[in-house]
């Protein structure tokens, strides 16, 4: 099986000098579903922002991010954005259209799908996220859980090869969470899920990566990692 995500010695500091990633390396095979856990500030969101080239602002000559066999570069970035669907931690960073329909349709429209294809992709994504009937509501009038579902619908509508989800269950009620887990189980894309929701990790991810202070502390079978009480307590 080919790797869908390859990260080689990734380091990143924010402009204020704060080192957020200190030499992170891992590889995720096509179709794998991997949990990314760790305390607040450990670098989970920063790592996910590297997967579709939102960070860094300027790509190095030899990038240490390789997605579906393509090394991230200025030339490959458009393709890579198409391959990787990223759900932001904060839904307000992702929603900007006057209606739910337009927001969910935005991605497929950008990728040049026909009107018919866009309509079908939006309908399917709204169904997968339990939002059918909300097409003409304003995203800004929705609850935070509903906003998160609209964001996810926008990502799913693009049918990406890789799903990178940043705290997808935060603000979801128990029913919303159950249905999210079911939806994700039904999608064959490679997944990496940053979360504090260990219950979801156990259900969805056979493998887990534990990050702390910008470094990988452990990477292995979920049962083994989460079962290691000492390790889990030591890293929040
Ligand atoms: P996590 O998602 O695991 O909570 P983050 O990736 O958000 O961690 O943050 C990693 C580190 O980078 C933290 O110390 C955080 O304060 C810092 N950081 C995150 N975003 C920014 C930013 N835009 N500017 C400066 N520092 C940031
Ligand atoms: Mg985060």
Structural commentary:
- There is one protein chain.
- The chain is an alpha/beta fold and 236 residues long.
- The strands form two sheets. A six-stranded mixed sheet has the order 6-7-8-3-9-10, with helices on both faces. A four-stranded antiparallel sheet has the order 2-1-4-5, with helices on one face.
- It has one domain: P-loop containing nucleotide triphosphate hydrolases (Rossmann fold, 3-Layer(aba) Sandwich), CATH 3.40.50.300.
- The chain binds adenosine-5'-diphosphate and magnesium ion (MG).
- Magnesium ion binds next to α1.
- Adenosine-5'-diphosphate binds next to α1.
Task: Fill in the keyword field for this structure.
236 residues; alpha/beta; Rossmann fold; 4-stranded antiparallel β-sheet; 35% helix
Can you lay out the helices and strands and say which pair or pack?
Layout: E1 3-13, E2 19-29, E3 33-37, H1 44-51, E4 65-67, E5 70-71, H2 77-83, E6 84-87, H3 100-110, H4 115-128, H5 144-156, E7 162-166, H6 174-185, E8 190-194, H7 198-204, E9 207-212, E10 215-221, H8 222-226, H9 229-234
Parallel strand pairs: 3-8, 3-9, 6-7, 7-8
Antiparallel strand pairs: 1-2, 1-4, 4-5, 9-10
Helix pairs in contact: 3-4, 3-5, 4-5
The major pleated sheet works out as: 6 strands, mixed
Q: What's the SSE pattern?
A: EEEHEEHEHHHEHEHEEHH
The Rg value, from CA coordinates, equals 17 Å
Quote the distance from N terminus to C terminus: 33 Å
- Strand percent estimate: 25-35%
Sheet/helix structural class: alpha/beta
């Amino acid at each position: 099986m080919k790797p869908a995500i390859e990260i080689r010695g990734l380091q990143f500091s924010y402009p204020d000098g704060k080192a957020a990633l200190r030499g992170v390396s891992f590889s995720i095979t096509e179709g794998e579903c991997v949990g990314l856990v760790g305390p607040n500030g450990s670098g989970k969101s920063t790592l996910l922002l590297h997967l579709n080239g939102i960070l860094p602002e300027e790509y190095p000559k030899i990038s240490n991010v390789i997605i579906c066999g393509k090394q991230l570069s200025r030339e490959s970035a458009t393709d890579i954005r198409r391959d990787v669907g990223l759900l932001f931690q904060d839904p307000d960073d992702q929603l900007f259209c006057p209606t739910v329909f337009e927001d969910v349709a935005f991605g497929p429209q950008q990728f040049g799908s026909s009107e018919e294809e866009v309509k079908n992709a939006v309908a399917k994504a709204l169904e997968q996220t339990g939002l059918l009937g909300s097409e003409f509501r304003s995203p800004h009038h929705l609850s935070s859980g509903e906003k998160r579902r609209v964001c996810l619908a926008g990502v799913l509508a693009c049918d990406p090869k890789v799903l990178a989800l940043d705290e997808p269950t935060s603000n979801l009620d128990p029913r919303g969470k159950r249905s999210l887990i079911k939806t994700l189980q039904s999608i064959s894309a490679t997944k990496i899920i940053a979360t504090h929701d260990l219950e979801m990790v156990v259900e969805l991810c056979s493998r887990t990566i534990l990050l702390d202070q910008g470094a990988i502390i452990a990477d292995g079978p979920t049962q083994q990692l989460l079962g290691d009480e000492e390790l889990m307590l030591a890293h929040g």
